[in-house]
Structure formats: structure tokens, C-alpha cells
From TrEMBL:
This is Rod shape-determining protein RodA. Keywords: Cell membrane, Cell shape, Cell wall biogenesis/degradation, Glycosyltransferase, Membrane, Peptidoglycan synthesis, Transferase, Transmembrane, Transmembrane helix. One of its GO terms (cellular component) is cell division site. Pfam families: FTSW_RODA_SPOVE (PF01098). It comes from Candidatus Uhrbacteria bacterium GW2011_GWF2_46_218. NCBIfam families: rodA_shape. One of its GO terms (biological process) is regulation of cell shape. It is found in: Membrane. It is a multi-pass membrane protein. One of its GO terms (molecular function) is lipid-linked peptidoglycan transporter activity. The chain crosses the membrane at residues 6-27, 39-59, 65-82, 130-146, 152-168, 175-194, 262-283, 295-316, 328-351.
Length: 355
């Protein structure tokens, strides 16, 4: 296995568990249920990690279409039988554990797109090939929007766009797609986006429009980040997080908790772990001589990088709040399990490309 990739994963998971534990301290009479659930998810995720790493990644190429269809069925099923949390119908409540199908879809779509683009690796994408890839991405995006989960839908679109660029999309196609995106964005604003989604975008442009409502989260997160100083206030001693000024402190705004309690030094270690993770993905992809393996790593890297940038960006007020957590760090059993599964696929490529 790639040792440095394991190191970066371990650091990120440790930071996440420490921050989740710290937030649990602020809850009166806390039984640390969130910490226990995350620990259980970690055990399940590690099983998936070792299972995937011991399996040839080429197996997922042969099963990509099946995995994709299963993901579509999950996304359809959750609209009918799912549990609604904070306005999004995106979870299957299994009693002791909640399953979020969109997290599974991220893994399935990386395999499906990698398998599709592998066939186009030696030529420019024609209009027909690009249209087929759009048909592949459209169903999960529409189903995510119906939940509604705008953040995940945009993440899937970003994944597709990144892979399409590397697969050989022409400048004319890029221009037409950007133009189409602008038109769709305008139409969505007036006919499809919910009021709270519009409010998030407007508040991002001007947080003072609703300082005690939609703008409250970002404002408090930025105060927490600024209060961290060089070394932070210490785990369990952050005023913003412990006094519950930062909402969703274990998920969307866990970066602000880490910045406040571990300070600039802690944030540098966290960002350094992410930088090491992305660097090792790049090194393994260069070493891989199989087109499917390269596209698979590119897809996984794109999902991780886009979600990382969006989460940190919304914590510091550079991007609108989308509800996307910090990969391998934020609280969320489904997210942790499937991201560890992705890391298992990366290790599978690393093991079988090692010379």
C-alpha cells in the first residue's frame, strides 16, 4: 500500500473524531452518541477500505454499469421511503444507522464515468460521445435536485465536467456547456430553486442581508476561525463551538471548530494532510498505465478536491453554503464509509501499479 496516503488519511480521520468529540462535550448530559456512531462508521469504513484495496480495481470496471443502476434505484427509493432532515429527503433511516444514497452514488458514478471515458481515452470527444456522457450524469443530478440536495448535484456536475475536460472536450464544447449552464442557472433561479437556496446565494453575496438568519452561520464560523489565533483555545474550550454559536458544527462547519480550537497551526496540519492526500493521488495516477485506473483516480480526486474546496470556501465566506461536509473529517457515517471505500480503490490501483 501507499504509506503516505495512509498517513494523510489517519491525520484527517483523527482531526474529525477529535472535533466531533469536542462538540459533544458542549451538549449537556451528552452520551457522546455522535462519537460512538462515527466510530462504528469508521470500523465499517475500514472493512470496506481493506476489502476494496484487496480487490482488483478492474473488477469495478466490469461492474460499473450495475453499480450505477443500483445507485439510481437507491436515489429513486429515498424519494419515496426516505427520511427528511433539514428539508432534504436524502436518508434511509435504519434505526441504529442512517444511509445516504447520494454518498454511494459518488462512488458508483466515479466507476461508471471512468469506465465510459476509458473507451474515449485516445481521441477527442465528439458530440455523440459527449452527449452520451451527459445522459449518464443527468439521472443522478435530477434525482439529487428532487431531494433537494443542490450541493451534491453540483458536485456530481463538477465531477463530470472535470473528467470530460481530461477526456478531450473541445473549446467549442466547453463554451456551449458554459452558455447552457448560465441559461439553466437563470431558469432554475426562477422556477426550481427553493426559497432557502435562493437565500443562501443572496446571503453569500451580502451576508448583511440576513445576519441573524441565512447569514448567521457563515458569520459565526468566520468569528470562530478568527478567534483561533496561532494555537487555538484548545479542544473543548472554543467559545463559538462550545456555546453553540456555530450551527451544524459537526458537519458543515467542522473546519471552523478546528480552526478555533487548534488555531492556525492545527489548520496548517489539516491542510497539509489534504495536500499530501492529493499529491499521492497524483503520483499514483502517473504511475498507473491503465486508462481506467487513471480515470478512476482522477474521478476520486475530483470529488475529494471539489468537496474540500467548497466546504473550506463556505467556512471562510468565499463560497455559498451548500451543505457539503469536509471529506473524511465531518460527522456522517455514510460519507465516512464511502470515502474510505474510495481510498480503498486508490490503494488497489497503487498496489497493482507498484513496480
Amino acid at each position: 500500500m501507499d504509506g503516505w496516503l495512509l498517513v494523510s488519511m489517519g491525520i484527517l480521520i483523527f482531526f474529525g473524531l477529535a472535533a466531533i468529540y469536542s462538540v459533544a462535550l458542549s451538549q449537556e448530559g451528552s452520551d457522546f452518541l455522535t462519537v460512538k456512531k462515527q466510530a462504528i462508521a469508521l470500523v465499517i469504513g475500514l472493512v470496506c477500505f481493506f476489502l476494496f484495496s484487496s480487490t482488483s480495481y478492474l473488477f469495478f470496471r466490469s461492474q460499473a454499469f450495475f453499480l450505477y443502476l443500483l445507485g439510481i434505484l437507491f436515489l429513486i427509493g429515498v424519494l419515496w421511503f426516505g427520511t427528511t432532515i433539514r428539508g432534504t429527503t436524502g436518508w434511509f433511516d435504519l434505526g441504529w444507522f442512517s444511509f445516504q444514497p447520494i454518498e454511494y452514488m459518488k462512488v458508483a458514478l466515479t466507476a461508471a464515468l471512468a469506465a465510459y471515458y476509458q473507451q474515449q481515452a485516445k481521441r477527442f470527444l465528439g458530440g455523440k460521445e459527449l452527449f452520451k456522457s451527459i445522459l449518464l450524469i443527468l439521472p443522478p443530478v435530477i434525482l439529487a435536485l428532487l431531494q433537494p440536495d443542490l450541493g451534491s448535484a453540483l458536485l456530481l456536475c463538477g465531477l463530470w465536467f472535470t473528467l470530460s475536460l481530461f477526456a478531450g472536450m473541445r473549446r467549442k464544447q466547453v463554451f456551449l456547456l458554459l452558455l447552457t449552464g448560465i441559461v439553466v442557472g437563470v431558469i432554475s433561479w426562477f422556477f426550481f430553486l427553493a426559497d432557502y437556496q435562493q437565500a443562501r446565494i443572496l446571503t453569500f453575496l451580502d451576508p448583511s442581508l440576513d445576519p441573524l438568519g441565512q447569514g448567521y452561520n457563515v458569520t459565526q464560523a468566520m468569528i470562530g476561525i478568527g478567534a483561533g489565533g496561532w494555537f487555538g483555545s484548545g479542544l473543548g474550550f472554543g467559545s463559538q463551538s462550545q456555546l453553540k454559536f456555530i450551527p451544524e458544527s459537526q458537519t458543515d462547519f467542522i473546519f471552523a471548530v478546528i480552526a478555533e480550537e487548534l488555531g492556525f497551526v492545527g489548520v496548517c496540519v489539516l491542510l497539509g494532510a489534504f495536500a499530501l492526500l492529493f499529491y499521492r493521488l497524483f503520483v499514483i495516477a502517473r504511475r498507473c498505465r491503465d486508462a481506467f485506473g487513471q480515470y478512476l483516480l482522477l474521478a476520486i480526486g475530483s470529488v475529494l478536491f471539489l468537496q474540500f474546496v467548497v466546504n473550506v470556501g463556505m467556512n471562510i465566506g468565499l463560497l455559498p453554503v451548500t451543505g457539503l461536509g469536509l471529506p473524511l473529517v465531518s460527522y456522517g457515517g455514510s460519507s465516512l464509509v464511502f470515502y474510505l471505500g474510495m481510498m480503498g480503490l486508490v490503494q488497489s490501483v497503487a498496489i497493482r501499479s507498484h513496480t
